[in-house]
Automatic annotation (TrEMBL):
Protein family per UniProt: Belongs to the peptidase A31 family.
CDD domains given in the database record: H2MP
Pfam families: HycI
InterPro entries: Pept_HybD-like_dom_sf, Peptidase_A31
Gene3D superfamilies, sorted: HybD-like
Keywords: Aspartyl protease, Hydrolase, Protease
Domain of life from the UniProt record: Bacteria
Lineage of origin: Bacteria, Bacillati, Actinomycetota, Actinomycetes, Mycobacteriales
Protein name according to UniProt: Hydrogenase 2 maturation endopeptidase
Length: 146
């Protein structure tokens, strides 16, 4: 199985660093047939990264009215995304729809979001989000290992 794990975010925007942090932790596991990368909010990067993969797993910080810092959520394109979505003006469901229109989607997409408390400038995640990292890594590994 070809798998890509993509951590979306910015390490210098506090809780927005959850995606890259989880990606780095998964990379250190040296899982066979798993490519791991980080990305910003550029749809073209995602389309290139997940194109042809059997499974793409994305990790991103989320913000919204019902956000509870550190809460982990999982969704797939056939489900309605949670109210708290990407912490930047980035709609993963819209990027997936664009990929479908272009014939550039993975066979399966799983998105994990972690509700953020603070995406301001700084390189340290808030305690609630930092504490979620091991759970998110475990959730990602559970998706990609039989």
């Amino acid at each position: 199985m070809t798998v890509v794990v993509i951590g979306i975010g910015n390490d210098f925007r506090r809780d927005d660093g959850i995606g890259p942090t989880v990606a780095a932790a998964v990379r250190r596991l040296h899982l066979e047939n798993v490519d791991v990368l980080t990305a910003s909010d550029d749809p073209a990067v995602l389309l290139d990264a997940w194109d042809g993969a059997e499974l793409a797993v994305i990790v991103d910080a989320a913000a919204g009215d019902d956000a509870a810092p550190g809460r982990l959520r999982r969704w797939t394109p056939d489900e309605t995304p949670p109210a708290a979505v990407s912490s930047h003006a980035f709609d993963l469901s819209a990027v997936y729809a664009l990929g479908r229109a272009l014939g550039r989607t993975p066979e399966q997409l799983v998105v994990f979001t972690v509700d953020a408390a603070d995406v301001g400038h700084g390189d340290l995640m808030t305690p609630a989000v930092a504490a979620a990292v091991p759970r998110v890594v475990s959730a990602v590994v559970a998706e990609i290992t039989p």
